[in-house]
Specification:
Layout: E1 2-9, H1 10-22, E2 28-33, E3 40-48, H2 53-63, E4 67-71, E5 78-79, E6 82-86, E7 91-95, E8 98-104
Antiparallel strand pairs: 1-3, 1-8, 2-3, 4-7, 5-6
Bound molecules: ligand 2BA.
Length: 111
Amino acid sequence: MKLIIAIVQDEDASKVASTLMENGFSVTKLATTGGFLRAGNTTLLLGVNDDKIETVMGLIEKVCKSRKQVVSASTTTTVPGTPGVYSPFPVEVVVGGATIFIMNVDQFVRI
Ligand code: 2BA
C-alpha cells in the first residue's frame, strides 16, 4: 500500500475529491497554505493499493489544471529560477496541476 499526498489548487479540490470518491477511493481533504504564494491550497491524503496508483494519478491529472498566477512585488518574492534575487515587479508563476508525493505505508490499521 502507498500513501498519496496530493497538493492541489482550491479551485480543483472539490471536483478532484468527488471524482476520486466516485471511483471508489477514500480521500481526506486538508486545508493547507502554500509557502511561496501564502495562499490557500488543498492537500489530499489517499491510502491506495499499489496496483491503483496509476488510476489515481490519471484521475488527478484529468481534473487538475495548471494556472498562471501573478505574485505581487515583495521583498520575499524571488525571481523564478534565480534564488536569492528579489523582484521589485509582479512575477508570474505557473501553479499546479498537482504536486504529488507517493510514500510506502508500513501498516494500515482501522480500529
Ligand atoms: P506555493 O508554495 O504557494 O507555490 C506556488 C507556485 O509558486 C509553485 O507552483 C511554483 O510555480 C511557484 N514557486 C514556488 N516556490 C517558488 C520559488 N522559490 N521561486 C519561484 N517560484 C516559486 P507548484 O510547483 O505547482 O506548487 C504548488 C504548491 O504545492 C506549492 O504552493 C506548495 O504548497 C506545494 N509544493 C510544491 N512543491 C513542494 C515541495 N517540494 N514540498 C512541499 N510542498 C510543495
